[in-house]
């Protein structure tokens, strides 16, 4: 088989693996896996690495390739499973560095296994000691090469894009609880003095604001709250109404007369027509409508509600341009992670 064809098959296996993993995550959780193009290519390189090495040495043994596919699917399936469990469970926590490290190191495990399998099928067992030394040599060589590709070459190739992004506006730091004043901890004062617009750090440059909507099959996004170009419309003019215990309701000029308040929900909920998107509901004292804020420097805040969940959820904005987003740009509740989509600025309006 031509070596060029082997390389093409190797890259195709990596791309299909990454696509399948992301598709499973999307179908089960209702959330896409966002990746910049260079990050996506890096993930494909990691998944393709064992097969690229097999192609480079012109190994055509089908069993070796098949075993590599099975092991690659196992590693990537485990990684996707950890992410799915985190999204659908109430457990708190942050980034699973162990799962990430295991994924990066997986080619150093898969590659030697594939090469040893190919050698056994080609040469059989001759001398036990000689065979063991050959197996150890193959493991050392292709394990080391795989580690160099994933932990050295890939970061070096990613460095230009990292430096380019380092010039972007940094994420503000959270105000420490022991140094913050009462309004810094609750945010009530900022939300009970007239009307304001809500804009995220991620969409400041695009001049987008949070807009309320009426839940209806004929409404845009079915009535979910969404980010839209900032304009003089009543759906973007918000007001806080004190609910006691350092919490408040959020209503808009558009739906205030109907006594409708912003309701936060979980990222994905089976049977929910809005797929867990934030929406305007009749004002009640339900935990999803009782909001509080945590302040960050430079005037940014996180909006959380009183939902009785073990893991804290924050209101996040999105953009309609992300066509692979199942919520089509609707605002939603996500695990708090200090991302730019979760950092809001309240802009007072006269």
List the helices and strands and how they pair.
Elements: H1 3-29, H2 37-56, H3 62-88, H4 97-123, H5 128-165, H6 182-186, H7 188-191, E1 195-200, E2 208-211, E3 226-229, E4 238-244, E5 247-252, E6 260-263, E7 279-282, E8 291-295, E9 301-305, E10 313-316, E11 332-335, E12 344-349
Antiparallel strand pairs: 1-12, 2-3, 4-5, 6-7, 8-9, 10-11
User: What does the overall shape look like?
Assistant: elongated
The class by helix and strand makeup works out as alpha+beta
Relative strand content: 15-25%
Report the order of strands and helices: HHHHHHHEEEEEEEEEEEE
Main-sheet strand order equals 1-12
How many distinct helices? 7
Task: Give the low-confidence spans.
Answer: 90-94, 177-188
- Spatial separation of the terminal alpha carbons: 72 Å
Task: Write up what this structure looks like.
- This protein has 2 domains: 3-165, no CATH class; 182-349, Trefoil (Acidic Fibroblast Growth Factor, subunit A), CATH 2.80.10.
- The termini are far apart.
- A two-stranded antiparallel ribbon has the order 1-12.
- The chain is α+β, with helices and mostly antiparallel strands and 350 residues long.
- Helices cover 42% and strands 17% of the residues.
- The chain is elongated.
- The longest helix is centred in the middle third of the chain and has 38 residues, at 128-165.
- It is built from 7 helices and 12 strands.
- Helix 1 (3-29) crosses helix 2, helix 3 packs antiparallel against helix 4 and helix 4 packs antiparallel against helix 5 (128-165).
- Residues 90-94 and 177-188 have low confidence and may be disordered.
């Amino acid at each position: 088989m031509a070596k060029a064809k082997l390389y093409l098959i190797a890259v195709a296996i990596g791309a299909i693996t990454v696509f399948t993993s992301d598709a499973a995550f999307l179908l089960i959780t209702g959330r896409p896996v966002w990746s910049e193009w260079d990050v996506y290519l890096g993930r494909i390189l990691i998944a393709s690495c064992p097969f690229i090495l097999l192609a480079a040495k012109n190994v055509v043994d089908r069993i070796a390739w098949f075993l590599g596919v099975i092991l690659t699917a196992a590693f990537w399936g485990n990684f996707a499973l950890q992410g799915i469990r985190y999204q659908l469970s109430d457990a708190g926590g942050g980034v699973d560095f162990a799962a990430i490290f295991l994924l990066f190191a997986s080619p150093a495990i898969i590659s030697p296994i594939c090469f040893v399998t190919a050698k056994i099928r080609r040469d059989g067992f001759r001398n036990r000691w000689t065979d063991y030394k050959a197996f150890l040599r193959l493991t050392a060589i292709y394990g080391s090469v795989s580690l160099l590709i994933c932990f050295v070459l890939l970061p070096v190739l990613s460095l230009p894009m990292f430096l380019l992004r380092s010039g972007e506006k940094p994420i503000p730091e959270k105000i420490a609880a022991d140094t913050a004043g009462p309004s810094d901890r609750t945010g009530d004062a900022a939300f009970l003095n007239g009307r304001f617009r809500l804009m995220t750090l991620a969409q400041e440059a695009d001049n987008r604001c949070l807009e309320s909507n009426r839940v209806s099959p004929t409404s845009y996004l079915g009535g979910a709250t969404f980010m839209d170009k900032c304009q003089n419309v009543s759906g973007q003019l918000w007001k806080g109404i004190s609910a006691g215990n350092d919490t408040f309701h959020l209503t808009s000029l558009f739906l205030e007369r109907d006594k409708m308040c912003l309701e936060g929900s979980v990222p994905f909920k089976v049977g929910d027509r809005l797929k867990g998107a934030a929406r305007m509901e009749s004002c009640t004292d339900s935990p999803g409508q009782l909001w509080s804020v945590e302040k960050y420097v430079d005037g940014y805040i996180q909006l959380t509600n009183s939902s009785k969940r073990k893991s804290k959820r924050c209101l996040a904005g999105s953009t309609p341009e992300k066509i692979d987003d199942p919520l089509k740009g609707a605002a939603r509740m996500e695990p708090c992670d200090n991302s730019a989509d979760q950092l809001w600025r309240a802009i007072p309006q006269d």
